[in-house]
Structures are given as C-alpha cells and as structure tokens.
Model the fold of this input.
Amino acid sequence: MKRTILACISFTILFLLILLCYISLLILPCCISLIEAKTFKVVSYNVQTLFDLTKDGTEFNEYIPNTTYGWTQKMLDIKAGNIAEVINDLKADVVMLQEVESKKSLLLLRNKLKNLQVNYPYFAIADSKATTMKCAVLSKFPIVEKKEIPVDNEFARDILKITLDIDGNFFILFNNHWKSKRSPESHRIAYAKTLKREIDKLKYKDDFILVGDFNSNYNEYDTFKNNNKLNDTAGITGINHILQTIKNFQMVNEQIMTTQVANEYLYNLWLEIYKNRRWSHNLFGKKNSLDNIIISNALYDDKGISYIDNSFDKFDPDYLFKENKVYRWQRARKGHGKHLGKGYSDHLPIFANFSNKPFHFQNNGSLPDENMNVTLQKSKKMTISDLYASKIGPVNYSLEKCAVIYKYKNNAIIKQKNGRAIFLYKIGSNLEYGKVYNLRVKILDDYHGLRQIIKINALKKVSQTTNLVFYLRNDPAADFSEPDLQNEIVSEIEGIYNRGYLYYGHNLKIKLYFKDKKLKPENGLLIVLKKVRIGYYKYPELVIEKSEQISLR
Done:
C-alpha cells in the first residue's frame, strides 16, 4: 500500500514537472518578444497655423472661417492633407506638433493620415488655455501621462509634457513653442525657466527629451549677442544658459554628456550634422535652427531608452521647396491675401531615432569633421549593390572606391566599377566630379522607391579617375525601367518625346521628369538626352536637370 502511494506521489511530481516545463516553453517566446529590441523615430514639426473652421475669437484674422480671406473647408482639407503627406513620408512613430489650433484640427490631421494607411492611436493637445495655437502630439505608443505646464505670462503657450510607454519603458517628452523673435530674449527666458523647473523635478536617470519650436538657434548665445533688439538680457539666453546646453562658453558635446554625474547639462542634436545643414527655417534668406531636439544624460546609458547616435537630421525633400525657398503655406500677395491652397509650412521637420537597446557611439563618439577629409573608423564593409538589400534607417557601412559620376547642386551619384550606382541626396557638396572616394554611410532611405544615401559622416579622397566612360550606361536600346538600373547614368539616348514619355528603341518607353519645366519639348519631336540619371518616383524615370542634357535632333 505504501509503495502504491509513493508511486502515485512520484508520478504526480513527475507530471507536474513536465507540465511546468511545457508551460515555461510557451511563456518563454512571449518573454523574449517583450524584450525585443525596438527602434523608433521622433519628429518635431511646426505645421504653420493648422486652424479649424470654428470661430472661437482667438483666430488670426486670415483664419476666421468663410471670410474674404478664403479659409474654407476646401482650404483646410488641402492644408491638412499636405501636412499628412509630409508626416507619412517621414515614417515617424511619434510626431510632436506646433501651431495646431484645436483638438478638431488635430483630429482632422489624424484622419487624413488614416486615409494614407498611417494610424496614430494616441494623441494629446495642450488646450486648457485659450491660446491661438497649441502644442500637440500624435503617437503610436500609449500616452500614460499628460501635463500642461503654464508659463508665467497670460499670452504664453503652455508647454506640453507627455510620458510614453515604450514596451514597458517610460519616455518623457516636453513639447515647446516659445515666443517668436518679434519679442526680445527675456520673453523666451520665461519659457526656459519654467521648463528648467520641471526638469529639476525629474530623477537623474529619467529618460527625457525637449523638442519643438524654441524660436532660438542651437547657438543662440552667439548669434543674438550683437542684436540690440533681441539681447535685453546682457547676453543670457534661454536655450543655452538656462537649459545649460553650453559649458564654459562652448556647446555641450557628447563627451560631457557621458561623463557628468548629475543631470546638469543637455545636448542639442543639431551638433550631430554638418554646419551647412543646421537650419530648419529660412526667412528672407536668413537660415535659423529654431526647431530643436535636446536630449538628456540618461539617454546615453544602458537602461530604458537610448539615443541612436548620429540619427538626427532635418527632413528636406525637394517638394518642400519652391524656387529654392521653403514652400510655406501660400496666400495671395495682393488684395485680401486669400489662401491659395498650395504649400506646406514655413518650417522643415526635424527627427531623431531612439531605441530600448543600450547606447553605443558611432564613429567613437566624435563629431563629423567639417571638411569631411577624415580617416574611416571601424564599420561594416559593403558594396553599393549591398545597400539595395539593406534595411533603411541608421546604418554604419563603409564603401570603397566610389567614383562620382554625376553632380547637380548638392546632389551626387556615386558608382563602383563593375558595380551599381546610388544617389546621395543633398550631401554631395564636398564631392568632386570624376574623383574616387572611400566613405561611410550613416543613414539609408527609400523615397517613393528611390534608394538613396541621406547621411555620411566620413569621407576620404582616394584618387582621380581619368575615364568615366566605363561607369556610364552606353546601351541606348536597353530597357531603363529595369530595377537594377536605378541611379545609373545614361551616356546618350534619343527618341520621340510625347506627353511626358520618351519612346525609343524597339517599342520601349520611359517617363521623363524635367526639373525645369522650360526644358520640356513639344510633343512629337525627336530629342537627344546626354548624361541623364535614371531616377525613381513611384516608377522609373529619366531626370533632366540641366539644359545641356537635352537637345533636338
């Protein structure tokens, strides 16, 4: 009897152990998925006066609905649709917005994004105070806390503080829209002091960032000091001195961030890119970095959220420019200044990437060399062909022996001999046509199907190539819509132009894109194209950017 009981007990224990192992096998994948590495993008975008169609009495005159200014449902739909197009192209996970009038206009924008198959389930707006414009946020992550921080001025916009839950990690974001430079610096210092008091309430290791339109340059202490209209504070600035983004009259760098033992100093991400790109607002030819992302020391540790080094940049595709100016929302210059239903915003969006993985430096944590003539640090060696199979976003790849086979303004195309070509978008100013370089790729992007490099941070000149003919496409009867020919340069091709297409070879055709519409020929003419690039915007196209690239046969 005792043996039977002992046998039953042993069998029961064995069964429970087997059951426990089985349950643990079921739970383990779930646990692994919970700690799976996640990378996400945060965007800051001043959308320039996104007003609704309700008259509240706080609107600018030109946005009072259905008046001679023409702010109508049609205009609102166009404006919200245009802004949604930009956000869609940014592929952002969190969008911090400025100049949103109300919850109604925020929800309209959110619905426009839904129409583009982009869903932001979570949103918030600082609407407790009846200011003309407000800070808002659209997020793919849950907002677990929202707080509006009033500034000690009845006309000042509230600072919007939100806390996101990123797979169990809390991430705090402060969204700002400080007083414009129509007022002196003392008005912006009021915002900075309010913000600093809130920061000082946080724990040392809390992950947080400051974003928004600060109406201050990243180096305001230097740019405003001789401006008597702005400098009413004896040289003290909100963004630099109060928020402490400078130390001993120098901008705080990443070395200071990683060695400080308290949350004393903050780091402005404009320092991550080359000086000639450090602007997001261009008024009457004066370029300013009014929009900022400023990060805290905790984003450099191995806990919670971390910053992805060198991932900061501005978003500046061609369609956000008109006649070399930022394509702001357009109103007529004469008469009542009616809304024209064209344009986007007078600000460019800025962005940075973050992760729940531990921080690690790219390029040994050093800033990019301004003349770009530096030695390559350790990175993964790739070919240009490899880049077409790579993920997009932040990378750390080195390319060797790349010839510059095309230049137009700040754009360039590079190619490896007997390999593929790729487009460098607005980062080619320091490249010389015909020369060969080694370089490091930091950010890859797909723009409506066009694979392109949008950030490099190391470049080394290798040699001068003497004959580029071996790098160009010399087969005028080839099908240039083939995917592998994207970004190649066609040496010469002729055909009949008709309604936007070039008809050539044996029943082949390809779309033509004219950067200058004046270069477009009449239908039915036989034309010759020389040294044109094969671009891609939802479909393959030959891009004509210079007058010498097209002639009549």
Observations:
- Residues 472-552 form a domain with the OB fold (Dihydrolipoamide Acetyltransferase, E2P) fold (CATH 2.40.50.140).
- Residues 23-35, 363-377 have pLDDT under 50 and may be disordered.
- The chain has three domains: 39-358, 371-466, 472-552.
- The two ends are 108 Å apart (CA to CA).
